[in-house]
């Protein structure tokens, strides 16, 4: 039993906590990754100053991450709830529909980006073939962010649907029966009885959506490495750490900013969970 706990703990410390702490420490340094630790130059908060005052891609990256977050809230979340409510009614073929809607979730966003190339390709894509247009959906900076978000929403909807479907299955049927006896309509029962009971699921979906918006990376990287209208914070981190510039300290500062933003929502989530457990 001790071994079963010790081995995963060591792996988490080695693969998660140590790299995270190292990123925070290196964010206060200038280092190109060449040579040993003696080549690290400690420069204090200079990297953070440069990010906020002298790094043009940072502002559009923040804007795009906020747009990503808003879209994930406004489209796949309510759509996932709607699909979960329909499938919870045990309609004919619900197992098939549930599998079909959830299937995109098991695919990586990088693969989804390639798959949607069949729809978005300027020369052979389905949209341009039907409409007769020649829009470069992945290459035009005016439309590529929205095109990528459509593909992302397609995947995220199934994830939200599964979470809410699990929550609906756990709702006590007697609550709905009592509401029906009291004369409540189906919509009133859902919003006034079912939704409050699923508060933990709502919180989980909220936190997951925020984290998904912040760590969005795969799909924009396979398209154009997060450039030309698809700048995201995660792509900036990668391009600085493993790109041609190899500015590990600067990239670590960007990663630390992401970590700080994510930690706010994780802490809020944990506080709510612990509060519920105490109750």
Task: Please give the structural blueprint.
Blueprint: H1 2-26, E1 29-30, E2 41-42, H2 46-53, H3 58-74, H4 76-87, H5 94-102, H6 109-115, H7 117-120, H8 126-131, H9 144-169, H10 173-181, H11 186-197, H12 199-214, H13 218-224, H14 233-241, H15 248-278
Antiparallel strand pairs: 1-2
Helix pairs in contact: 1-15, 3-9, 3-12, 4-9, 6-13, 10-11, 12-15, 14-15
How is this structure best described in words?
The protein is mostly helical. The chain has one domain: MetI-like fold. It is built from 15 helices and two strands. The chain has a two-stranded antiparallel sheet with strand order 1-2.
Keywords:
279 residues; mainly alpha; MetI-like fold
Secondary structure tally, helices: 15
What CATH architecture would you give?
Answer: Orthogonal Bundle
SSE pattern, N- to C-terminal: HEEHHHHHHHHHHHHHH
CATH hierarchy class name: Mainly Alpha
**CATH H-tier superfamily:** MetI-like
Number of strand segments: 2
**How much helix is in the residues?**
over 70%
Outline the biggest β-sheet: 2 strands, antiparallel
Number of domains: 1
Q: How much strand content do the residues show? A: under 5%
The pLDDT mean sits at: 84
Task: Describe the structure concisely.
With 279 residues, the chain is an all-alpha fold. 71% of the residues lie in helices and 1% in strands.
């Amino acid at each position: 039993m001790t071994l079963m706990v010790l081995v995963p703990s060591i792996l988490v410390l080695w693969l998660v906590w140590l790299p995270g702490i190292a990123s925070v420490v290196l964010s206060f340094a200038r280092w190109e990754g060449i040579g040993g630790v003696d080549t690290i130059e400690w420069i204090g908060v200079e990297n953070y100053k440069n990010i906020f005052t002298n790094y043009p891609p940072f502002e559009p990256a923040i804007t795009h991450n906020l747009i990503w977050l808003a879209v994930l809230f406004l489209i796949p979340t309510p759509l996932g709830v709607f699909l979960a409510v329909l499938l919870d009614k045990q309609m004919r073929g619900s197992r098939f529909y549930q599998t079909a809607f959830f299937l995109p979730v098991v695919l990586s966003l990088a693969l989804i980006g390639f798959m949607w190339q069949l729809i978005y390709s300027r020369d052979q894509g389905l949209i341009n073939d039907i409409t007769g247009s020649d829009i470069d959906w992945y290459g035009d900076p005016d439309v590529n962010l929205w095109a990528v978000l459509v593909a992302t929403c397609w995947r995220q909807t199934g994830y939200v649907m599964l979470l809410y479907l699990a929550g609906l299955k756990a709702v006590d049927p007697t609550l709905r029966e009592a509401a029906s006896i009291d004369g409540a309509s189906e919509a009133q029962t859902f919003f006034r009885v079912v939704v409050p009971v699923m508060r933990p699921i709502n919180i989980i979906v909220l936190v997951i959506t925020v984290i998904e918006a912040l760590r969005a990376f795969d799909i924009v990287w396979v398209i154009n490495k997060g450039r030309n209208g698809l700048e995201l914070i995660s792509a900036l981190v990668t391009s600085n750490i493993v790109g041609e510039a190899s500015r590990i300290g600067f990239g670590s500062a960007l990663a630390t900013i992401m970590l700080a933003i994510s930690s706010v929502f994780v802490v809020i989530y944990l506080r709510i969970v612990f509060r519920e457990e105490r109750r």
